[in-house]
């Protein structure tokens, strides 16, 4: 007698993943990342959101919170909602043109208001990056990534040197999430920072990916020492003092008086 096929297979449906597969997929994200997604979804549902939701509903949610939440926070909410749909096998509204246009409008509107306050800081950062890019290729890529990621994530020197390749989660066309394992104020759990992609030529996400590609770093510390031959010197991370020296060198090359601001920022 022929065996009867599983019901899912008979209907032409994909079988449900096993408990073991589910365990590993859950382990793919750091606990802090999962916690931040849960918080995002709680906020979304408290505002009347549901899974599934339409592109119009998501766009309305973003628009209604555009003046009270940071752009990076809204972008993080989109990713959480996107993942919530994919996790249950539903099409995500996050990539819909309406949602993308809504976020573009929010960035432009909010950016105009913020640019008046941050213009000098942004110009100074670009000046530093331009100076860094005049170095040997590998060192230029590392220092540009160090500067842009440091300021985009508002990281201290100690946090920058603690970043591991395994702590970075890439969201194509959206940005990256960096999990800081331990800080001075959060000794046990650390925290997670989302850095969105930027359209400018000095995008921090693009700069980090360029550095990782050129250096060939796929695991372990992200920012490492480079020798005089413009090669990655070792597998250990830079020290906080090394970061300070890198920035001092770049500032000197840029002929900029940024050291007081860098020191104030913890860099």
Describe the structure.
The structure is a single chain. The chain is mostly helical and 267 residues long. The protein has two domains: 17-102, DNA polymerase, domain 1, CATH 1.10.150; 115-264, hpI Integrase, Chain A (Orthogonal Bundle), CATH 1.10.443. It is 55% helix and 9% strand. It is built from eleven helices and five strands. It has helices at residues 7-10, 19-27, 31-46, 55-64, 71-87, 97-132, 137-152, 157-162, 204-215, 240-254, 259-264, and strands spanning 168-171, 175-180, 191-196, 224-226, 232-237. The protein has a three-stranded antiparallel beta sheet. A two-stranded antiparallel ribbon has the order 4-5. Helix 6 (97-132) packs across helix 7 (137-152) and helix 7 (137-152) packs antiparallel against helix 9.
Ranges where pLDDT stays below 50 over 5 or more residues in a row are 1-12, 115-120, 184-188
For the record, give the distance between the C-alpha atoms at the N and C termini, rounded to a whole number: 73 Å
Report the sheet-strand fraction: 5-15%
Number of domains as seen in the coordinates: 2
Helix content: 55-70%
Quaternary form: single chain
Cα-atom radius of gyration: 22 Å
Sheet with the most strands? 3 strands, antiparallel
- SSE arrangement, N to C: HHHHHHHHEEEHEEHH
Shape: globular
Q: What is the name of the CATH architecture of the largest domain?
A: Orthogonal Bundle
CATH topology of the largest domain: hpI Integrase, Chain A
| Tally of DSSP β-strands | 5
SS element count, helices: 11
| Strand order of the biggest β-sheet | 1-2-3
Mean pLDDT: 81
CATH homologous superfamily of the largest domain?
Intergrase catalytic core
Keywords: DNA recombination, DNA-binding
InterPro entries: DNA_brk_join_enz, Integrase-like_cat_sf, Integrase_catalytic, Integrase_recombinase_N, Phage_Integrase-like_Recomb
Domain Tyr recombinase: 115-267
Protein name: Integrase
């Amino acid at each position: 007698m022929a065996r009867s096929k599983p019901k899912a297979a008979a209907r032409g449906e994909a079988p449900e993943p096993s408990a073991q597969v589910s365990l590993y997929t859950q382990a793919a994200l750091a606990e802090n990342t999962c916690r931040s997604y849960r918080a995002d979804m709680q906020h979304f549902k408290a505002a009347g959101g549901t899974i599934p939701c339409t592109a119009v509903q998501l766009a309305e949610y973003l628009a209604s919170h555009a003046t009270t939440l940071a752009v990076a926070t809204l972008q993080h909410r989109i990713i959480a909602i996107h993942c919530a749909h994919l996790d249950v096998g539903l099409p995500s509204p996050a990539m819909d043109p309406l949602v993308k246009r809504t976020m573009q409008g929010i960035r432009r509107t909010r950016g105009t208001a913020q640019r008046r306050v941050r213009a000098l800081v942004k110009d100074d950062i670009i000046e530093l990056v331009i100076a860094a890019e005049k170095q040997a290729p590998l060192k230029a890529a590392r220092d540009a990534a160090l500067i842009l990621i440091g300021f985009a994530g508002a990281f201290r020197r100690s946090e920058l040197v603690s970043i591991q390749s395994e702590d970075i989660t890439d969201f194509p066309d959206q940005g990256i999430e960096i999990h800081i394992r331990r800080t001075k104020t959060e000794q046990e759990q650390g925290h997670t920072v989302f850095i969105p992609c930027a359209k400018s030529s000095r995008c921090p996400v693009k700069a980090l990916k360029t550095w990782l590609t050129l250096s060939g770093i796929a695991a372990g510390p992200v920012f490492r020492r480079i020798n005089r031959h413009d090669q990655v010197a070792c597998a250990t991370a830079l020290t906080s003092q090394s970061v300070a020296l890198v920035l001092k060198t770049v500032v000197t090359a840029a002929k900029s008086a940024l050291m007081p601001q860098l020191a104030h920022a913890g860099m």
